[in-house]
Amino acid sequence: MGSGCHATDEAPNGSKAVTLLLRLSTMALALTSAVVMATASECTIYESRGARVTVTFKHYPPFVYLVCFNIAATILEAAGIYLQVGKGGDDDEEEAPKAARVLLVFVDVAVPALLNLATGAAFSAVVAYGPQISACTSAAGRFCEQVNRSKILSLAAGISAVSAAFFKDVQLPFSVWPASSDDYC
User: pLDDT per residue over 45-85, tens digit each?
Assistant: First the structure.
């Protein structure tokens, strides 16, 4: 029961807005990471015996995991955005369908898990296959640069996903989207 101009009885929706923004950034970062890794240019390495070896991300299973897990996380995060916005994200939590709330919890657990697995695999692959990947730095391809960009983007997506899950349950003291015109003087 507010008094005065622009007063509303509605609870602040800042956490919903921040969560939506973080979900969108998670989706964008995960998809970008997958695309950067999947388009890693071929690199040709000349071994000591004169043999020529062409390297792509498919030669390293952890990089394939990164692409697959980031695409899966992107799809799940898109479902999470739909569940948040389309299935009761603006309504009271009690009014949202129970199945949508359960699925949203699943998304909030699965997305960070997938992104952290993918990122960890990529970081460990860079350590394990370091000399082979580093050999591409001086070669004609941009393989090493794209591997590094992709793993950093995947790390940022994981941080964004964890932050979205956190801010979903924290009430922030501000409102973002406007209230109805009836609430104004």
Answer: 766 777 777 778 888 889 999 999 999 999 999 999 998 88
Architecture of domain 14-170: Up-down Bundle (1.20)
Question: In terms of Cα–Cα distance, which of 53, 29, 6, 44 is closest to 154?
Answer: 29
Number of neighbours of residue 163 by Cβ within 10 angstroms? 18
DSSP sequence for 99-150? HHHHHHHHHHHHHHHHHHHHHHHHHHHHHHTHHHHHTTTSSSS-HHHHHHHH
The alpha carbon of 77 is separated from its chain's Cα centroid by a whole number of angstroms, namely 7
Residue ranges per domain, the chain?
Answer: 14-170
